[in-house]
Write a structure and sequence with these properties.
Oligomer: homodimer
CATH superfamily of the largest domain in chain A: Type I PLP-dependent aspartate aminotransferase-like (Major domain)
Number of domains of chain A: 3
Distance between the termini of chain A: 75 Å
Structural class of chain A: alpha/beta
Mean pLDDT of chain A: 85
CATH class of the largest domain in chain A: Alpha Beta
Strand content of chain A: 5-15%
Low-confidence stretches of chain A: 1-10, 93-107, 439-443
Radius of gyration of chain A: 28 Å
Chain lengths: 487, 487
C-alpha cells in the first residue's frame, strides 16, 4: 500500500539501478548505484540529493538504508553533508561552486584588451537597479500575466516604447505598430518570414555589413544581395539597379562597421526608392542613441513610416544578456510579425515588465545619458592615444556608437589582427565584414575596426601601445626587417 | 559654445517642435509643444519628464523657461509634479499606474472559470524564490557573461539539465548534446530548420494534437502530415505508411490533448521505425513530470538516444512567463540547432543562471513534488465532482498532466463550449485540436477537453456545476425543450 507522498515523489526509484538482492544488502546496493550515477556524470557536481525520508519513501525502503548509503558516499568524498542543509554531490576537486566553474566552462578566448566592435560597456550594466525592476515585476505581475503572453508584447511596454521612440528617435509610431522581440536578429528573422510569405525572394544588405544579418536573411530562405557602402553610406543608386529587390536592411544612423552616417541626400533617395517599389526598409538602429558631435539623427522611420520598419534593442544600450528588442513596423506588417505561425514568441514577460518600469522611472534615459558621456570620453581618450602612437592616420566613423575605423594603407589588416592576438588584443579587420573581398589598393582595402565599448578607461593606453607594436611588427615583416617583440 | 552635458543630452530638442519665435515667448512655445506631444500620444501617461536643468541644457535655453512651461502644464492637468520626484505625464483619468492599466490593456477574455488546457497553476509560481535567484544571477554573473551569450546556453545550466533529465526523466544525455532554448515551439522551429537543411520535406504530427506544432512545422517551410492517435497513442503503423516522412513530433508520456500514454509496444515500434528510416523523433515532454498513478514513464529518448530529440520547457512546470526550454538532441543535430545561421538565439543569460541556481539548490525538485501533489488532489476533486454532477461518463487521459477528456456522446461539444462561455467558463472541444474534422458517430467525435492546472481548488465545484448546466441546456436545445438559465 503506497501513500500519496510516495506516489508523487521524483523518479529516483527508476533512476537508480539497484541490482538484484543477491548483490548484497540494500544500503550497499544503493551506495553503489549512487556512486555510479556520480562517476557516470548523471549526478552533476553541486546537485542536491533528496532528503533521506523522501528517497526512502520513493524506494520503499527504511530511512536508515538511505542515511547509511549517504554516509558511505560522504566518507568516500563523493558527497558532502553540512548540518542544516541538504546533502550534495561534491565537486571533483575542491569546493567549486556554480560561479567558480564559469571561466573553465566557456572555452572562449577572453583577451586582456578586447577591441572587438559591437560589445557595450558591460561594467556599466546597472545590476542592482535591473534586479530591483525584475523583483518588482516578479512580485507585482498579475497571476494572469504569468500565463501565456500577448504575442506582440506587454501592452504597457509598447506604449512606453512608442513614447520613447518618438521622444528619443523622432519616430512616428503608435503602440499598436510595435512588436516586442528578442533583439535585432529576431526582428530581421520575423520580418524576413513575413516578406517571404508576401512573395519577396531577395533582400539587400549593406556591404561591408554585419555578417549575422546576411546569415539570418539566408536562414529565412531568402537571398541576401550585397549593396556597397561608400563614405556617404548605402549606394542607393546601386540598390535601384538590383532587379527584383524591394527590401533592404540598412543602418542609417551609424553604419556597421564603417561608422558612416547616411548622407541627407541618400536618406531622401532611399525613402523615395521604398515608396516607388512599394518596398520595406529595415532600419537597424543598433547604436543610434550614442552620437557625440550633435543630436542623434532622427530615425528614417519618422520620414517614411509607411515603408520603414525601425528595429532597436537593448543589446548595445544595456546588455546583450537582456535579449529584448522591438520592431516598429508599418501596420500592414504587424500581423505577420506576431502571427504565431511565424514562430516568433515574445521575450519573457517578467523582463518586459522590468524594462517597462526601467523606462517609466526615467532610469533608462539616465542610463543612456551617462553612457553617452562615458563613451564620448573614452572615444576622445582613444583618439588622443591613437594620434600619439599612430600619428597621421585619418580615423573615421567616430561620430557615433563605440567603434571606429583605422586605415592601414601600408600593411594588411588581417596580419595586424593576428599579430595583436599574440599580444592578447582582440580586434577586427574591415575585410571580416565584407560579403566579397575588396580589391587591394582600394582606399578601404586595409582597415582595422576598433571597438571601445567594453574597454576600461585604464586599458586604453595599453591597448593602443600593443596595437602600435603589432602594426610595427607586421610592417617590419612586410619589409623584411625584424622588430623585437617586447617582453 | 556647447558643453559636453549639452551635447550628450537626449534628443528633446529635435522631438519638440518649438515653432518660430514669432509664435510667442519661448516658455509658451515649449508648453504648446509639450501639450501637443501629450495629446498626440507621443508622450505616454506615466512618462517621466527630464529635470528642468537637463531639458534647458538640451534646448539651449534658461532653466526658468522650462520650469515655467512645466508649471503651465501641471496647472492644466497634463503633468503632475510631486516634491522630491520627477515631473510626469498624468494619466487621462485618475491616477492609473503601471499596474492599474494591466487589465484594460489586454482586451482578452479572462473567464471566471478557466478550464482551457495547457496552463499550469500560475498561483503556485514561486515569485519570491524566483526573484531571489534572478537577483543572485544579476549580481554574480561575471562581466564577461553579460556579453553575447554562448549559443547553446550557459554550460553550467546544461550540466544541471543533463543531470536532471537523467534523474527525473531517465534520459541519456551528455551536457554537450543539450541546447537551451525559449520553449517547445522554439525547439521545434530550430529542429525543423535543421531538418529542412538536411533535405526533409514532411514532418508527421499527432492528430488530434497541439495546433501550434502544425503551424510551426509549416512556418519552417515543411509540410505537417497528420497521423491519427488512438487509445494506445500514435498509430505507428500509419506513420510507417506515410511515404517520405522520416521525422515525427510525438508526446509519448501524455499525449496532448487526448492524454493517452503511448503503449509499450508502440514505444518499441516507434523506436524501431526511427532506426529503420534513420529518422528523428521529436519527443514533446511537456508535462511528463506530473504522473499520478505510478512513476512517470521514462523518456523515449533514453531508449533510442541516437534517434530521439527530447524537448522540455518550464512552461508547464513553472510558468510560460519564464520562456526557458531545452533540446537534448542526437549529436549530429546539435550543430544545426546552435548555428547562428538558423536564427536561434539563446534565452536571456540572467534567466539561464537563475534557473541553474533554482535546480542546483533543490528548489526545482521541491517545486515539482509540491505541484504534483497539488495537481493530483485537484484532479481527484474534479473527478469526484464530475461523477456527482455528470455521472457515468468514462473520463480519460487523467493519469498525468493537468487536463482530462470528458466524452459527450449525446450532444455536440462545440455547442457546450459556446454555452459554457455564456456562463463565464472557458474550455475546449477535442475537435479544436484536429487536423481534419472527425466523422460524427466515431467514439471521440464529441468530447470536451478540461484543464484544471490553473483552476483554484475552491473553484472546482462551481466550474463543474456551470459546465453541467451548459450540457443540460445544449441537450435540451438538441431535443427541442427549454431549460432555464440560472441567474
Amino acid at each position: 500500500m503506497t501513500t500519496d507522498r510516495e506516489r508523487t515523489g521524483p523518479a529516483w526509484g527508476t533512476f537508480l539501478e539497484l541490482e538484484s538482492p543477491a548483490e548484497g544488502p540494500l544500503h550497499a546496493r544503493l551506495a553503489r548505484a549512487l556512486r555510479i550515477a556520480v562517476t557516470g556524470g548523471r549526478l552533476a557536481a553541486g546537485s542536491t540529493l533528496p532528503a533521506s525520508r523522501v528517497l526512502a519513501a520513493d524506494l520503499r525502503c527504511s530511512r536508515w538504508v538511505v542515511t547509511e548509503a549517504y554516509a558511505q558516499l560522504v566518507a568516500e568524498g563523493y558527497f558532502e553533508a553540512r548540518s542544516g542543509s541538504a546533502t550534495r554531490v561534491r565537486a571533483p576537486a575542491g569546493p567549486a561552486g556554480v560561479r567558480g566553474g564559469a571561466r573553465e566552462d566557456r572555452g572562449r578566448w577572453t583577451p586582456r584588451f578586447d577591441l572587438l566592435p559591437g560589445v557595450p560597456d558591460l561594467r556599466a550594466f546597472p545590476r542592482k537597479r535591473w534586479a530591483d525592476m525584475v523583483r518588482a515585476a516578479t512580485t507585482e505581475l498579475t497571476w494572469d500575466e504569468l500565463g501565456y503572453p500577448d504575442a506582440a508584447g506587454l501592452p504597457r511596454l509598447r506604449r512606453q516604447l512608442a513614447s520613447y521612440l518618438a521622444r528619443g528617435r523622432g519616430a512616428r509610431v503608435e503602440s499598436g505598430q510595435l512588436v516586442v522581440c528578442a533583439g535585432t536578429l529576431d526582428a530581421v528573422m520575423r520580418l524576413c518570414r513575413g516578406l517571404r510569405a508576401a512573395g519577396h525572394t531577395d533582400i539587400a544588405v549593406e556591404d561591408p555589413g554585419w555578417t549575422q544579418l546576411r546569415l539570418t536573411v539566408a536562414a529565412a530562405g531568402l537571398t541576401p544581395v550585397a549593396v556597397p557602402v561608400d563614405e556617404h553610406g548605402l549606394r542607393v543608386d546601386l540598390l535601384r539597379r538590383a532587379a527584383g529587390v524591394r527590401a533592404v536592411i540598412v543602418a542609417p544612423a551609424h553604419q556597421f562597421p564603417t561608422g558612416v552616417v547616411l548622407a541627407p541626400s541618400r536618406r531622401a533617395e532611399l525613402a523615395d526608392w521604398a515608396r516607388e517599389v512599394d518596398g520595406l526598409v529595415m532600419e537597424d538602429d543598433y547604436d543610434a542613441e550614442f552620437r557625440y558631435d550633435r543630436h542623434p539623427v532622427g530615425a528614417l522611420q519618422g520620414v517614411a513610416p509607411e515603408h520603414v520598419a525601425l528595429l532597436g534593442s537593448l543589446s548595445k544600450t544595456l546588455s546583450p544578456a537582456v535579449r529584448l528588442g522591438w520592431i516598429a513596423a508599418p501596420e500592414r506588417w504587424t500581423d505577420a510579425l506576431t502571427a504565431k505561425a511565424t514562430g516568433g514568441a515574445p521575450p519573457p514577460v517578467i523582463d518586459q515588465d522590468a524594462f517597462t518600469r526601467f523606462v517609466a522611472s526615467g532610469s533608462y534615459d539616465r542610463h543612456l545619458r551617462a553612457s553617452r558621456l562615458r563613451y564620448k570620453r573614452r572615444r576622445d581618450h582613444l583618439l588622443r592615444e591613437l594620434e600619439a602612437r599612430l600619428p597621421g592616420r585619418p580615423v573615421s566613423g567616430a561620430a557615433a556608437g563605440f567603434h571606429l575605423l583605422l586605415p592601414l594603407r601600408d600593411c594588411p589588416a588581417g596580419a595586424v589582427v593576428d599579430e595583436a592576438a599574440q599580444a592578447d588584443v582582440r580586434l577586427a579587420s574591415l575585410d571580416d565584414y565584407r560579403a566579397a573581398p575588396a580589391a587591394t589598393g582600394t582606399p578601404t582595402a586595409s582597415t582595422l575596426v576598433i571597438g571601445y565599448g567594453n574597454l576600461t578607461d585604464q586599458a586604453v593606453p595599453g591597448a593602443v601601445q600593443r596595437l602600435a607594436h603589432a602594426i610595427e611588427r607586421v610592417q617590419a615583416a612586410e619589409h623584411g626587417t625584424r622588430v623585437r617583440r617586447p617582453g
